Every structure is written in structure tokens, then in C-alpha cells.
Backbone:
């Protein structure tokens, strides 16, 4: 089984550790697959504008630099640890009202997607790029300030676009019964070193991007584990 | 001048003098032109007997992959590495297997065997590894040790002298991305480095650091083997002591090993040094008081606390903190650690914390190590905590309070 974490932040957004060190933390701990998913925040709300002000977001201007840095680290991680590093972003539509807020992981993305676009356009563009679409923390978190309910509240409308839902995020496990009809994965939402010890995904597939995406989409051979020291 | 101020000021001066001696000892260990810190000059003929490296693994340390990998890059003709684990689900198991997979040309064994011979979990981990070790020389090396290429070649050179029974090493703290890790590295590079060098160079006392111990199998068996230390916390101290009593010399190699600490929390730092303090209290007895009076920063802090802030108490604290930090910085430069200059600002805070920790062993004789709780007795002898009765109730209360704070 591949030990995976598909939700990781670095100093490119609001993570506290630089990309290279984040890759080393996971490599040193024996992970097989990780995805770097820094925030791309909307610019059409007061909270979103704050994120732009404090540079807690990847922007279109530095997107290519971000992707190049991940590509470089991906090569290094593969050679040194045999660990696969997938590039991605976390589309973060942040509003004061959690019912309007939504976070989406787009994995194996090639071109920039703005969080200010409407949902249909984001999903359509992500599909065109064959990116894996994961709905993040769809249910209440222990840290209520990060709650994002829009996707879950509108699941009948959006579920067809979403490849997987986060059934666990860091220390929180969401309502398993209500999520059981959807494909699922578990992630750390890594921002600090101690977040390494949290919920993770185990995949029974080969260590290739295509196989991993297929495994998650079909949701066969997927398990979750609480990674502890 | 108040007598109390004079007492504190004298203790501060004593502490600084003791630290100056430790700095001299570290410098001396680093500069003498012999392969070992306390050894005789040796002949230059090649001496490279095959070595079995025993690596007891439990959980993830910072930098674990690199630590284990560094033992695959040794510039040494023949050696085997045995990664020993108690449990296949241990996260370190995956890392050990990755290393074995990456270096198929190396003689690496990942050995998983549950052993409950004694109460010391590290010794329990070592017993199965020792049983399958092929070579007459064994090196016990902790999982948080990172070695340079010439490590084995350097430390084995001391063994050429048949009178030497055990070779140990000084530890250098490296890295430090979090406050806890910086505190740990500061302590390793000042107190631990200074004390071990001082014991070896000045007091000529055998001092063994368990992170790296090279021995002959025959010598270890002659002093009772691992079975003789299975129920003690300080197995390294006892092995060194018995080796010394058996007439074999215990030497401190000039070769310094690295301990990379990157992302420690403050709690981990406090827990480790509380445990080590309890251990030294049980081993050293009344000598343990020397650690308190040779902590000049804490003494100056006590003067400030007892006499209140005034020009002289503040000046004493500031002056002592500056001198001690300068000493820490000097040692850091001398041993070539990669700590930043700004890290040394935390030195006085670390000394004050260590000063408070010093009192804990006087109040508690239990340790929690690798998930198990023990009562620690004389010479660090372990006994299990009672599961019933009044004492067990006390531990449950403590655990509940800790869980609440966590």
C-alpha cells in the first residue's frame, strides 16, 4: 500500500515551512506519494483580499515559478527517496459565511485556475486538464474558523464533478455514514511539522500519477490511516 | 552587600569557572593529535576488522532517512547493518526497508522480532539484533545518529589496542528549525558536550554516550552481555562502568557524531531532560547537586527572583548570561555546529528551564519512556509501575492532567 498525503501547504501560501524542507520531512518519514497544494485564494471577498495582501496565496504571476519549484523537488524526491511529488493547488473560496466558502484540491494541474471563477468554470477547466478534483473538509472542523460547507450543502449539484471527498482532515474525521456513498481520501492539511502525524490515505496501486488518479476516482483499494509516531 | 547576593554571585562565578573548564576540555578533546580523546598514540598500520552495526529503531526521528542512509556510505571494507524493530507497523520499518531497497549492494538486514526480555525497550530491541550479528565487533548506534564517511574507520582505530574495551563518541547537535530543537541542540553542545569532555579529560572517569558504543562481542559477554542491563534505564552507563571494572579501557573517540534535531517541540525537550535528570540523580546521588551549582545562569536568575530586580541583580543576570552565551558560541564554533548566531540568544532561557527541571527528580522517581511508565531506582534500575493501589491512582491523575493540557 502506498502511504500518501494529498493536501500539503508550504510558504508559497500560508504554510510555515519551505517547499524543499516539506518534501524532506515527508521523504525522511518514508512516504510514497505527496501532493503540494498551496492555496489559490479568491479575490472577490474581504477575507480573500486579505490573503492576497499578506501573500498567503499563489497568484497567476508566480504560478509558473511555483510549478517549476515543485517539478524540481519532484525530481529530487524521486531520486533520493523514491517518493512521488504531485503538483497541485487548493482553490480557496473564502467568505465570512462558511456556507458560501469552499476549498477544492486540484491535483496534477498544468495551468493556472483562478479561485475567483465560478464553480462551473473551475470544474470544467480542471476536467480539461485531467486534474483530480477533491472537495476539502466538507463538514464541520474542530477549528470552526476554517469551516467550508458550500460544496457539501450543494452536493447534489457538484458531486458529479468531484473525484473524491476528504473523509478526514488532520485530526477530524467527518461523518462516515453520510460520506460513504462518495469516493474518499484522508489528508493532513499540512501547515506545520507536527501536522505530519494525522490522517492519511493508503492506496493499493502503482506509484505513478495516472494509476493514483485512477485508484482514487474508482475508489477501490483506498484506505485511511491515522499516521502516528 | 547582602550576604545572599554574595552567595549567589559566588555560585555564579563558580559556575562560570566550571564552564570554562568544560570549554577547555572540549577544546582539548578536539585538538589532541591521537585518534581517541583519552587514548594513547597508535601505530599507523591498517586495522579494519568487520563490524556489525546494530540499529535499534522505534518511531520516526528527525532526519531518519538520512541518518540510516549515512551508514550505507561508510568508507570501510566490510560491515553489516542490522535495523532492529519490535513491530512491523512501526513507521521506522518503512524507512528501513526503503534504505535496504535503495542500497542492494550493502549488507543490510531489517530484523523484526518482538522481545520482552527486560524492561529497557532499547535493550529489548538490541537482543534479537545481537543474536544475528555476524562479526566479532559490534557498534550500537542510535537511530538519531548521522555519521560521516570515516566514522567506522576512525572509531575502530582505538580498538587496535587490546586494552580498550569500549569506544564512545561525543555528540554534536545540528539543525534546529523549531524552538524546542534549538534548545535541545544548545544543551547537547554546551552541557552534554562539556560534561562528557570534562569527565573524560579532567576527572578521567569513563563516560559512555549510548548513541554510539563500539565493543568486542567477547568483552560485552564477559561483563554479562545485554541480559545484564535489560532492566536498567542507563544501559550505556552500566556497560561502561562494568567494562571499566573488568579492566578494559573506555575511551572517547575524537570523531564527533551528529544528532540532527529539526522540529522538536518544547515539551519533547523538557520530557527528555527530565528523564535524563532522573537518571543522573539515581546514578550520581549527592553528586547531582553539582549540576545545579554549576548552572550560573539559573543561579543569577535565582538572585533576581529572591532579591528582586535591582541594578546589581539585573547586572549579574545580564553579565552571567552574556558570558555563558559567549561560551556556548565558542564551543559551537569549535565543534563546527551549523546553529545560527541568533540561536544562542535562547541559551539563557534554556539554562533557566534546565534549572527548574533539576528539581523534578527530587520529587518524582517515575519515567515514561517509549510509551511505558517505570519506577527508576538506584543505578537506574527499572521496575514497572503498580497497576493497582494508591500509586496507580496517582499516575492516572497525572496522566489525566497531562491529557487535559495536551
Residues:
Amino acid at each position: 500500500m502506498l502511504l500518501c498525503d494529498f493536501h500539503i501547504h508550504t510558504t508559497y501560501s500560508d504554510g510555515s515551512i519551505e517547499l524543499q524542507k516539506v518534501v524532506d520531512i515527508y521523504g525522511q518519514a518514508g512516504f510514497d506519494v505527496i501532493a503540494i497544494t498551496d492555496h489559490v485564494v479568491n479575490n472577490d471577498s474581504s477575507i480573500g483580499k486579505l490573503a492576497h495582501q499578506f501573500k498567503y496565496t499563489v497568484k497567476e504571476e508566480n504560478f509558473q515559478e511555483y510549478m517549476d519549484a515543485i517539478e524540481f523537488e519532484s525530481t529530487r524526491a524521486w531520486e533520493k527517496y523514491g517518493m512521488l511529488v504531485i503538483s497541485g493547488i487548493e482553490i480557496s473560496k473564502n467568505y465570512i459565511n462558511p456556507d458560501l466558502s469552499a476549498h477544492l484540491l486540484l491535483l496534477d494541474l498544468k495551468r493556472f485556475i483562478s479561485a475567483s471563477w465560478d464553480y462551473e468554470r473551475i470544474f470544467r477547466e480542471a476536467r480539461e486538464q485531467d486534474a483530480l478534483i477533491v472537495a476539502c473538509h466538507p463538514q464541520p472542523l474542530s477549528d470552526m474558523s476554517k469551516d467550508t460547507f458550500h460544496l457539501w450543502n450543494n452536493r447534489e449539484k457538484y458531486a458529479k464533478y468531484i473525484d473524491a471527498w476528504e473523509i478526514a482532515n488532520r485530526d477530524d474525521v467527518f461523518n462516515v455514514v453520510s460520506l460513504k456513498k462518495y469516493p474518499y481520501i484522508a489528508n493532513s492539511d499540512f501547515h506545520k511539522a507536527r501536522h505530519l502525524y494525522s490522517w492519511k490515505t493508503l492506496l493499493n496501486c502503482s506509484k505513478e500519477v495516472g494509476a493514483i488518479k485512477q485508484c482514487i476516482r474508482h475508489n477501490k483499494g483506498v484506505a485511511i490511516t491515522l499516521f502516528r509516531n | 552587600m547582602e550576604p545572599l547576593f554574595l552567595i549567589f554571585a559566588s555560585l555564579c562565578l563558580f559556575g562560570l569557572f566550571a564552564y570554562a573548564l568544560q570549554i577547555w576540555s572540549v577544546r582539548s578533546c578536539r585538538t589532541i593529535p591521537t585518534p581517541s580523546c583519552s587514548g594513547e598514540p597508535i601505530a599507523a598500520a591498517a586495522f579494519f576488522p568487520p563490524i556489525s552495526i546494530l540499529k535499534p529503531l522505534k518511531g520516526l526521528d528527525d532526519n531518519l532517512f538520512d541518518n540510516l542512509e549515512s551508514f550505507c556510505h561508510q568508507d570501510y571494507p566490510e560491515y553489516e547493518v542490522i535495523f532492529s524493530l519490535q513491530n512491523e507497523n512501526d513507521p521506522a520499518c518503512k524507512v528501513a526497508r526503503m534504505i535496504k531497497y535503495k542500497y542492494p549492494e550493502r549488507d543490510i538486514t531489517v530484523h523484526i522480532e518482538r522481545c520482552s526480555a527486560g524492561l529497557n525497550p532499547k535493550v529489548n530491541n538490541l537482543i534479537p539484533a545481537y543474536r544475528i550479528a555476524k562479526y566479532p565487533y559490534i557498534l550500537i548506534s542510535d537511530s538519531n545518529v548521522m555519521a560521516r564517511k570515516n566514522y567506522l574507520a576512525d572509531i575502530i582505530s582505538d580498538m587496535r589496542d587490546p586494552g580498550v574495551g569500549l569506544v564512545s563518541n561525543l555528540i554534536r547537535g545540528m539543525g534546529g528549525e523549531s524552538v524546542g530543537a534549538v534548545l535541545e541542540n544548545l544543551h547537547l553542545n554546551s552541557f552534554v558536550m562539556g560534561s562528557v569532555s570534562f569527565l573524560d579529560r579532567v576527572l578521567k572517569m569513563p563516560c559512555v554516550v549510548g548513541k554510539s558504543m563500539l565493543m568486542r562481542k567477547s568483552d560485552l559477554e564477559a561483563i554479562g552481555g545485554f541480559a545484564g542491563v535489560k532492566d536498567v534505564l542507563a544501559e550505556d552507563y552500566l556497560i561502561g562502568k562494568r567494562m571499566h571494572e573488568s579492566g578494559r579501557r573506555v575511551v572517547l573517540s575524537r570523531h564527533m557524531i551528529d544528532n540532527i534535531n529539526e522540529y522538536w517541540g518544547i515539551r519533547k525537550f523538557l520530557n527528555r531532560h527530565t528523564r535524563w535528570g532522573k537518571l543522573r540523580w539515581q546514578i550520581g546521588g549527592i553528586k547531582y547537586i553539582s549540576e545545579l551549582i554549576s548552572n550560573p545562569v539559573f543561579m543569577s536568575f535565582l538572585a533576581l527572583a529572591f532579591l528582586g530586580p535591582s541594578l546589581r541583580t539585573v547586572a549579574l543576570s545580564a553579565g552571567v548570561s552574556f558570558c555563558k552565551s559567549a561560551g556556548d558560541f565558542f564551543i559551537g564554533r569549535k565543534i563546527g555546529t551549523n546553529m545560527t548566531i541568533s540561536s544562542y540568544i535562547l541559551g539563557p532561557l534554556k539554562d533557566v528551564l534546565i534549572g527548574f527541571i533539576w528539581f523534578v527528580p527530587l520529587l518524582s522517581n517515575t519515567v515514561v519512556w517509549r510509551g511505558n511508565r517505570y519506577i527508576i531506582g538506584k543505578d537506574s534500575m527499572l521496575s514497572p509501575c503498580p497497576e493497582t493501589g494508591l500509586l496507580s491512582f496517582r499516575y492516572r491523575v497525572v496522566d489525566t492532567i497531562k491529557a487535559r493540557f495536551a
Remarks:
- The longest strand of chain A covers residues 84-93.
- The two ends of chain A are 18 Å apart (CA to CA).
